[in-house]
Records
---
Amino acid sequence: MQETAWQVSLVLMLMITFGVIFVAINSHKREEEYGPLVKRAYGFRTKLFWVVALVFLPAMIYNLMDLPYDVSRAATAGGPPQVINVTAHMWYWEMDRDQVDAGQPVEVHITSADVNHGFGIYDKDMHLVAQAQAMPGYTNVIRHTFKEEGTYKVLCMEYCGVAHHNMMTEIKVGNL
Ligand code: CUA
């Protein structure tokens, strides 16, 4: 579907390009046949066409280079994501892995076994790096690439009962 759209756009672009060239050549011919006044008018028209062509064609080509929209490119950039599956419980985090590599995309799939929790990842300075809600019956996804190695803290960001403050775990980034 996107392939077809691209081909149609390409054909249209070629038609416009040839149209512009044809008009430019023709108006040049007529310049020699008619008087100087007409010549100036056609000359101006030729210039206008070339300005339009030079401004819009690169823009069109530039836009088309992003077709098909880089969903696939974004998804594969830096290799397949490192997936961490997280289930929140009162009052702990269940994670199927807690080590990932730096510089490679990470996808955290987060759900809850009971009530709403908040999955928040903090760096060593306790700055929030990424977060998503942990909700029963839903899986929310965080996409993040850790640039720095180290141990990142995970805290619960939504009050979920008496031991809310105990919901802490860690994600180790790099070869630790
Ligand atoms: Cu879980 Cu607060």
---
Amino acid sequence: MHHMNKSAKQRTLSIVKPDGVEKGVIGEVIRRFEKEGIRVVAMKMLHLGKKQAEGFYAVHRERPFFSSLTDFMSSGPIVVMVLEGDDVIARNRKIMGATDPAKADKGTIRADFAGSIEQNIVHGSDAPETAATEIHYFFSDLNIVS
Ligand code: CMP
């Protein structure tokens, strides 16, 4: 009999972007995760260079907003975190709200704090494969607690 995978424990990468750090909502973002029972299992603050931002968002390199996005992401410090919990990839996306804050549900991080579709406070991985890639862009397994 195979295992029911619906609420399996997952990990995802979360980023508080430069606008979130500037607006002073690092703690508020983390509070919203912890309130839902999501655990932070790795965390650090860093200031990406342009090349590092381009590497992180490489899948978007053909998009018209790539240059502006990577300028923004390298414009100030960010906080990167690994989150862990049941179905945490989808739950994190729900807590963040839609990419475009104008379309984000009331009470989500982006509806409450984001200024634009680009400067939208937080990033969250969108699938298990991208979560694994994105986590390892910033953290070695040795730097993630279990
Ligand atoms: P994120 O979830 O980090 O994934 C890609 C990022 O690109 C997104 O959040 C936004 O910051 C940015 N982005 C997505 N769509 C647009 C757009 N149409 N114009 C500008 N920036 C965008």
